[in-house]
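Reproducibility note. Readers wishing to regenerate the assembly model reported in the main text can use the exact inputs given here. Chain order matters: entities are listed in the order in which they were concatenated for prediction.
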Amino acid sequence: MRVLVIGSGGREHALVWKISQSKSISFLGAAPGNAGIAKIAKCFAVGAEDVDGLVKLAVAEKIDLVVVGPEVALSLGVADKLRELGIATFGPSQAAAQLESSKAFSKDFMARQNIPTAAYGVFTQSDAAIKFLETLSAPYVLKASGLAAGKGVVIAETLEQAKEEVNEMLSGKFGDASSELVIEEFMQGEEASFFVLCNSKNIIPLPVCQDHKRAFDNDEGLNTGGMGAYAPTTLVDENVKARIMQEIVIPSVEGMAKEGNPYNGVLYVGLMIKDGVPRVVEYNCRFGDPECQILMQFMPDDFAEILGKIAREEKIETALDFAGKSAVTVVMAAKGYPENYEKNGAINNIDNAENETGAFVFHAGTKIEDAGQLRANGGRVLNVTANGDTLQDALDKAYAAVKKIDAPSLFYRNDIGQKEICRNK
Ligand code: AMP
Ligand code: GLY
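Running the prediction on these inputs yields the following structure tokens for the assembly.
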């Protein structure tokens, strides 16, 4: 197969890394890719939002399988256009991707299918939104319905703040994305990221991940796209996992098919778990970032074959075995992230860090400048990833590599995975 991966982050570097080990591939490209991806795949200067450019590229390069990383390409309908041309594509149609691209769609879908989630209302007018807020108690959860690059959720501590947010969001705080607003009940509990590979013939759960969204240790600081993650997590034991499959995942996949929007690709269900009871926080129509970096540590050698079978609506006959392994990723981010952050910081010693520890360093935001010098080029910059027989083994390798990387403009959390270590003490 000639394979093309769409995207340019750490998630896509991890996908490309895993796919590059597959014996069923003869060519591996990425659009647009990044400095790390360029070492193992041919990068093309076509952005993930340029649907026509991507389709032309796939045709010109005689691509057999396209693997779509980011939600934006899916929400613009890249999978539909590729499939129309007979190119197998891993990723949902534009209609199915509404599970992520419209929170109003996803909440109404869950209500129709009786899938447990927070009580909610959808609003385009502030009077009605404020009336609804007055029926809830603090804290208040307000969400831009559309895609807002992970920034569209506001948790307001007081009713006053929540009312102000309603007005700001409806008058364009997140552009078009917040012209429609979802207001929700606040759910207590601990979060987990649950992924399934699915098409009309399979629903295959992957190891359950836990992300660390706050910027600093002990979950302090601002919300980020994710500062690190590990899997598997015992937050979800076999009983909870069975409930998640029965009450949430199977009704989600079957419900989408029944409603005429069959889902193909990876479905990412963000969960809140309280006393063993799971409820949906949100759906995403793609791999998580940085969760993908750890999930790739568990995948079989010929992962491209699995992706191809999902994309072609084929049944995967052999069960995937993820037992006996743990994985972790530590995000190194530019100082100041997720607000204004340092740019262009030099990064050195990655190869040694990898060779001396057995960790893998995925590039999330880097570029190569002035005679080969690697530099930071984004908020989240590197994803230092390792696997081991136990979480502690994986953590030891990952943090040993983090400490060997020479990157004074970056920071990282020291406590990735510690919730799990403490849970099992
Ligand atoms: P989302 O983009 O919907 O995943 O929201 C971002 C983050 O906001 C989630 O990861 C949760 O930490 C938090 N969040 C969203 N909705 C709720 C809710 N209804 N109750 C509590 N926390 C929430
Ligand atoms: N790690 C959270 C996300 O990918 O949305």
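We highlight two features of this model. Residues 227 and 331 are 5 Å apart (CA to CA). The domain at 120-184 is CATH 3.30.1490.20 (Dna Ligase; domain 1).
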